[in-house]
Specification:
The protein is α+β, with helices and mostly antiparallel strands. Helix content is 57%, strand content 11%. It has helices spanning 3-9, 11-23, 34-37, 41-53, 58-65, 77-87, 92-111, 119-161, 163-179, 184-214, 228-242, 262-279, 310-313, 336-346, 383-391, and strands at residues 224-227, 248-253, 257-260, 286-292, 296-303, 350-356, 360-368. Strands 2-4-5-7-6 form a 5-stranded mixed β-sheet, covered by helices on one side. It has a two-stranded antiparallel ribbon with strand order 1-3.
Length: 394
């Protein structure tokens, strides 16, 4: 008897063992009905049996073993099983253990037939294991993506809903500050409330940008005419006021004017400058260079400091990764460079980093120019800019 036929004829016995094992996965299985515990196993068995019977080329077998099996337009039975198990409260380890138990159960029952091994039975067993691995991989991938999506939604809601109470706190602190009649100690405490509130809003904005990027909506780019060098000087002046003991140098050459998103470009400068201040040696300057040519404008931020570890530099632009060595007292979320990369990408540009003890650390972002005049339309103008121009009679 072929293994596929054996699975079909003994599916009830296999399902009973599946149910008994699933019942042991507590606390998720506590109180679940037999139907819920059997959740989708019959469809998984049909998939496995059909897969064993399906003719497969060597290249198809290789692709499957490497996880490159073509994805169908609809969710597979393994993906649906993952969705139901997640909704039922099973964690990822418990769901994976079900597939291990299924593999062991079928193999044990098949071996109990005491059949003489043949070339066909060995080939069927190989195909069975491939099918189990494929179903397991699909379940893990779907489960992980669903968890990531739920987490990003949570971060987005959290970032959005916290803005209002934090904003109210800042307004109240500034109102108290404007009333006056405060002693030095009170003024210091109120100023700290405002600074901490502003920093909290900055983190909320980063969380919102993170969720926009990771949930697929991307970062919105609203283009307008601007000068990259001018925005750079503005951000450097702000950074000088925040860090009066640090030295900043600016060099610009060529045509640095173009059509980009001014506030988003400001975020790029702010993130890169903040990163350089945080990880650069305090007694050495931070160098900013802007170069414009006919096709693009590049900006680079350089600092001398401990180099980024070689094993970390490849993931430096990923979310929740900090830019330098651990133990520097940083409390940031590790989102600045990730958001910077997303902003540059939204402009059609690229960003890279080099870091060594000899040459220091340099971030280089390249922004292509907008050469198609049709792109510069009223759709790119910010609503607040339109209102201001209307009020000014422009």
């Amino acid at each position: 008897m072929r293994l596929s036929a054996f699975i079909r004829e003994n599916s009830e016995e296999i399902i009973v063992e599946w149910e008994n094992f699933a019942r042991s996965l507590v606390p998720a299985a506590s109180g679940m009905s037999p139907l819920s515990l059997r959740n989708h196993i019959s469809y998984i068995l049909v998939f496995i049996a059909d897969d064993i019977d399906t003719v497969q080329t060597d290249s198809e077998q290789t692709n499957k073993s490497r996880g490159k099996q073509p994805k169908s337009a609809t969710d597979s039975v393994a993906e649906i099983h993952a969705a139901l198990r997640q909704a039922g409260g099973f964690n990822l380890d418990q769901m994976v253990s079900e597939y291990r138990a299924l593999r062991a159960s079928v193999t044990k029952l098949w071996a109990a037939q005491d059949l003489e091994p043949t070339r066909q039975s060995v080939a069927d067993l190989v195909r069975f294991n491939e099918a189990i691995d494929q179903a397991n991989t699909e379940s893990i991938s779907y489960y992980s993506k669903t968890v990531d999506h739920s987490r990003d939604l949570f971060l987005g809601v959290l970032g959005h809903d916290l803005r209002n109470p934090i904003g109210a706190m800042i307004m109240a602190a500034r109102l108290i500050e404007s009333i006056g009649s405060l002693n030095a100690r009170q003024e210091m405490l109120i100023a700290q409330v405002v600074i901490s509130g502003d920093r909290s809003l900055e983190m909320m904005d980063q969380l919102l940008d993170l969720t926009r990027a990771r949930l697929g909506s991307g970062l919105h780019v609203l283009r307008e005419e601007m000068d990259m060098a001018f925005v750079c000087r503005q951000l450097v002046e702000e950074m000088r006021s925040l860090h009066p003991s640090r030295t900043f140098t600016i060099k610009s050459s060529g045509d640095t004017a173009g059509v980009w998103d001014r506030p988003r470009i400001g975020q790029v400068f702010s993130n890169l400058l903040g990163n350089a201040v945080q990880y650069g040696f305090k007694d050495l300057p931070i160098d900013v260079t802007i170069i414009g040519d006919t096709k693009s404008v590049s900006l680079s931020v350089h600092n001398e400091g401990l180099p980024i570890p070689k094993d970390a530099i490849g993931g430096i632009f990923e979310a929740m990764v900090r830019g330098g060595a651990e133990g520097n007292g940083s409390t940031n979320l590790g989102l600045g460079l990730y958001i910077t990369k997303e902003i540059v990408s939204a402009h059609g540009g690229t960003i890279r980093v080099t870091s060594s003890e000899k040459d220091g650390t340099t971030f280089i972002a390249l922004f292509p120019r907008v050469v198609d005049a049709a792109m510069v339309t009223r759709d790119w103008v910010r609503p607040e800019d339109s209102l201001q121009k209307k009020q000014e009679g422009i």
